Amino acid sequence: MHFVPASREVLAEVLLAAGPTAPTLCAGWQTRHLAAHLVLREQSLLAAGLVLKPLTHRMETELDRRAEAAKDRNAYAALVNEFLKGAPKISPLANPRVDHSANLSEFFIHTEDVRRASDRWVPRALDDRYEDLLWDDLVRRAAHYYRGADVGIILVRPDGRRHVARKSSSSVAITGRPGELLLHASGRREEALVTFEGAEEAIALLSVSL
Fold it and tell me: Number of helices (H) and strands (E), helices first, in the chain?
């Protein structure tokens, strides 16, 4: 579970280095919007708008307000530092197990959302145990990630370990390191360093169904 606090620090460093108006892979968001999202997600009851539609508009309004204020570099740095402090003690996310479940993949993905939105980036060298934990998290969520796919999905690691995320008569094997597979599964299709194996028709169908 110690990888989550370290990942939080890395994400905060990446956000600060990029500045408030850098692009991200999150459609329509600059880094200041992402920072506001991260803070609201952990510290505001409006974060329920992520799953409860009646609160979605209020949540988005508050996110936009904070992002607008964070155009100023000092305000942006304060917002990122607020994220760096972590969830308040009264939050369920203050529990290390909940924090691990909710934030292990979240922080990795958003770090890459900032890094890979620039023209120059290289994949990070990740600790083997960290990659294993990302893989475990991906396996738990894979069926949800690929629920809209019109073909079967088999996730394959370079060491040969694999997971059937979705069954079908026609399948595509997606191969890559755990972090790359996680990025592909979570919608970062163009930036994920993965390869595909399967019938041409199945691979083409996969690309249009996701």
Answer: 8, 4
